[in-house]
């Protein structure tokens, strides 16, 4: 019997990690049972949705719908100034939602309410009436609001990840 010897784990107790195995590999998986430290509570996207945060999202969605309806009326009534006012209100809502909740959802909730309302108000009715006219101001309002939402969402992700302003060469 001069063949290769079979390695067994009998000498290590059977359930301990091999020598040289990283201690971090055990911490990355499921929570430990019985002995050891308890698992840390979920954070970030894995955190459970609290009732207060859910109410904030619903409130921001409804506020986005109100800002879209008001902006649609104002941008058509006073063309250059009303358009700027409507876009400033939308941008303020998106930025305020991101700042208040500290998450991208703070932009997505009012952005979704804003977009749904703008799309519904721009649709023609059976009577032939519609709220938004087909003009340059309407398209600038639609595209400008979407661009503002994307800018605010991207900025909130950068703040959440801890990205800092940096200059080249430093």
Shape: elongated
Q: Can you count the beta strands? A: 0
- If you average the pLDDT, what whole number results? 75
- Percent in helix: 55-70%
Largest sheet: none
Give the C-alpha Rg: 27 Å
Order of helices and strands: HHHHH
> Termini separation (Å)?
67 Å
Poorly predicted runs of 5 or more residues: 20-30
DSSP strand (E) fraction?
under 5%
Structural class: mainly alpha
SS element count, helices: 5
Give your account of this protein's structure:
It is built from five helices and no strands. The model is unreliable at 20-30 (pLDDT under 50). It is mainly alpha-helical and 170 residues long. The protein is elongated, with a radius of gyration of 27 Å. Helix 3 (79-101) runs antiparallel to helix 4 (105-122). The termini are far apart. The chain has helices spanning 24-27, 51-77, 79-101, 105-122, 136-160.
Describe the secondary-structure layout.
Elements lengths: L23 H4 L23 H27 L1 H23 L3 H18 L13 H25 L10
Helix pairs in contact: 2-3, 2-4, 3-4, 3-5, 4-5
Q: Which tags fit this structure?
A:
0% strand, mainly alpha, 57% helix, 170 residues
Overview in brief:
This protein is mostly helical.
